[in-house]
Design brief:
Layout (H helix, E strand, L loop, with lengths): L8 H13 L3 H4 L28 H27 L9
Length: 92
């Protein structure tokens, strides 16, 4: 048996749904919509071309992943900065 904990698909879906509810419309509009192809900063469209009242769910998921990736990248930079040795150079 493996000691690695695996999350079930239902737990991952719940996590993604919770994350998407925490997003602002501004954050969601920073990614392109994979469903209707709406560009960044543009609202999603219905198949008739009319604007949707809210973004597509796939766009919300993409935005949540982008926000999470950005947060991980920033925390990685902070971790590296903390572990850099502080060297004081003395004149020879």
């Amino acid at each position: 048996m493996s000691s690695i904990e695996h999350s079930s698909p239902s737990k991952r879906l719940h996590y993604r749904l919770v994350k998407t509810k925490e997003l602002t419309l501004k954050q969601i509009l920073l990614v392109r919509c994979p469903t209707c192809g709406a560009a960044t900063k543009e609202v999603c469209e219905l198949h008739t071309g009319a604007p949707r009242t809210g973004p597509h769910q796939d766009r919300e998921f993409s935005a949540a992943e982008a926000v999470e990736a950005k947060a991980k990248k920033q925390s990685g930079r902070q971790r590296k900065a903390r572990h850099l040795p502080s060297q004081i150079l003395e004149p020879a």
